[in-house]
């Protein structure tokens, strides 16, 4: 159960049900029970106008309920798990689900980072069949654990964030260096407060804005953590000419 609308391996609407704090909330989310959750998916369907839709569910009733809640046409074909997977594969999946709380969703790793802040685990290479008589191909998936069943903590040292920021500062002409970086880690992501030295001659507002956008993008890309808040403050000005004369 994901609560996501996926097109060509890209999440185009919805928010993962795996972020819910309880199983009841997860089920409601996956069924698009709330009006605002329905509207986001329906709007995307109208925009992309798909010729067909594959609904993934754990039962006939669940699939039918999703179709009803989203106002979709009557289901014309049903494919059960035993039609596409062997008994051994299903048993392995069940064992991993029960013992490790892991689940596989059909989206590449980079696509789910923002949906599973702090809950992204190792990529999994899965062989999938294209059809009878054809060779299987490898499709990269991402194993995740729902919030309510997560048995450990996914933590990243504050030093990692600082090193990323310092690297970005070196490659940003308007920023001379990072003076201070504070990281507050919350369940939904991280909040960052950064103090920098601006290079004299550059527009302070534009320089801070560009650095902020670059920092948010790279941190989310490299750490799989949401950046829910990022504040960048100019605390000093670096004047290259002046420093060269003093040396």
Tell me how many strands there are.
8
Number of helices: 9
Q: Helical amount among residues, as a percent range?
A: 25-40%
Major sheet: 3 strands, antiparallel
Low-confidence stretches: 119-132, 136-140
Q: Measure the end-to-end span.
A: 63 Å
**From the helix content, strand content and strand pairing, which structural class follows?**
alpha+beta
DSSP strand content: 25-35%
The overall pLDDT, averaged over residues, is 75
Shape field: elongated
Q: What is the C-alpha radius of gyration, as a whole number of Å?
A: 23 Å
- Within the largest sheet, what's the order of strands? 3-5-4
Oligomeric state, counting identical vs distinct chains: single chain
* Total discrete domains: 2
Give the topology string: H per helix, E per strand.
EEHHHHHEHEEHEEHEH
